Amino acid sequence: MTTSTTLGRTPGRRQVLAALAALPVAACTGRADESGLIATRSSSAPDPLAAYRLFADAGAEVWARHLPQTTTSSELTVLAISGGGEDGAFGAGALSGWTASGMRPDFDVVTGISTGALIAPFAFLGPEHDDALRRIFTEHDASDIMTLRPIQALFGDAVYDTVPLAGLIKQFTPPALLEAIAARHAAGGRLFVVTSELDSARASVWNMGLIAQSGNYDLFRAVLRASSALPGLFSPVQIGYVSGGETYTETHLDGGVHMQFLAIPAYAFAETKKPRPGGQLFVLINNTLNPMPSATSRSALGISQQALTTIGRASAASAVSATQLFAHENGLDLSMTSIDPVSGIIYDPSDRFSSTYMNALYRHGYNRGEARELWDTL
Predict the structure, then answer these.
(1) pTM for the full model?
(2) Residues 219, 238: Cα–Cα separation, whole Å
(3) How confident is the model at residue 40 (pLDDT cuts 50, 70, 90)?
(4) How confident is the model over 356-375, as a mean pLDDT?
(5) Most buried of 54, 121, 150, 183 (most Cβ within 10 A)?
(6) How many whole angstroms separate alpha carbon 304 and alpha carbon 18?
C-alpha cells in the first residue's frame, strides 16, 4: 500500500524503522542447488510467467496478447487507481458515491497499484461490490493488516508481517468472486495489477482476469499482497513457478516503487490498434497532490519521510502530465480526482490504518462522488 508517512505508535517503532533504512531487503530469484547456493534463471531465458504477466515497458506486440483488439476497438473506458496506504479509503468511498450519483460507467479496463490493487478487483466487477470496499476500508484497522516484528525486523526483511493482510485478501476474494472476474475477462474486460520485482528491478503488469480464469487463485491473491508490500516496512512476497523441471521464486513488492498509477501506456498500441477516439480515462489518486503546508520533524526519520512523500507526489504529478498528453493524442477524455487538501481530515502518522481516519476519508470520497464533485477534466 504505497504511502510515505511515518510508521509506528511509539518512538521505539520509529527507531526500528530508522535502523531498517540501512539494511538490505533479503530476496532472490532462483533456486537452491545441491550446495545450497542460489542458481538464478538467465534474464535472456523465456519468461515462464509470460502467460500471466508482461513487463510495463513491453512493446505493442506483447501488450496485444493481453489487451486484444476486441477490447480496444470500441470506445475504451479506463479506470486507473493509485496507491496510498490507508488513503485507499478515499478511493473506496469515491467509487461508492459515484455509484450513488447515477453517473458511474462500466469499465473496460481497470488498473491498480498498491492499495489501488486491493480496490481494483471490486471496481472491475461493478457497483454491486461497493459494499465489500466499504467493509474493507471502514471495518478493519491495523490489527487486520499487519503485525509488528520489532526484533526480527532488525535482521529480517520488514518491520511488519502482513500475514493478517493475506487472510483479509483471502476472505474478500472467495472462489465466487474470482469466477466473476474470469467471466468479465472472457467477455473482453481487462484487470491489471502492478508489482515491482526486486531482482530484475522491473515492473510486472499482471493480467488478473487471465490468472482467475486459469484457476490459480493463490497466485491472484499473492499478486494483490505483493503490490501492497511497502519496501522495508511490509514483507515482500515470494512468487514461485516451475521451469524446466526446477522450482524458482521471484521476490515482488509494492508496484508504487515504479509508478503511482498505470494508465495504459502509449507503447501498448500499434498504429493500427490505437484506441478508438471518444473513450474516457479516469485516474483516481489516493493521495493529496497539493497538500497544505505542515511542520516537518527535524529528525533524520522525519526528514526522510517528508522527502519520500514529496518524491511520491512529484512522481504522481509527472504521471498525470504524461497521461494528459497520451489522452489528448488518442482522443480520450481524461478526468482526475485526488483527496482535497482542505478536507480538514487530520492524519496522525503515529497511528497507521486508524479506523477513525479511514472512515473520515471514506465519507469524504463518498460525499464528493454522490454530489458529482469528484472529477476534474484535464
Answers:
(1) 0.83
(2) 10
(3) very low
(4) 96
(5) 121
(6) 10
Q: How many CA atoms lie less than 13 Å away from 371 in the CB half-sphere?
A: 8
Pairing of strands 237-243, 246-254: antiparallel
Nearest to 157 by CA among 28, 48, 344, 332: 28
Q: Which of 333, 325, 335 is nearest to 278 (CA)?
A: 333
Confidence of residue 198 (pLDDT cuts 50, 70, 90): confident
As a residue count, the chain comes to 378
**Rounded CA separation 29/236 (Å):** 12
296 pLDDT higher than 60? yes
Task: Quickly list DSSP for 283-313.
Answer: EE-SS-SSPPP-----SHHHHHHHHHHHHHH
- C-alpha–C-alpha distance, residues 60 and 148, integer Å: 43
DSSP state of 128: G
User: Longest C-alpha distance within the chain, in Å?
Assistant: 64
- The bridge status of strand 190-197 relative to strand 202-207 is antiparallel
> Residue 37 — very low, low, confident or very high, per pLDDT cuts 50/70/90?
very low
Task: Tell the burial category of 258 from Cβ atoms under 10 Å away from its Cβ (0-12, 13-18, 19+).
Answer: buried
pLDDT in tens, 71-120: 887 788 999 999 988 899 999 999 999 999 999 999 999 999 999 999 99
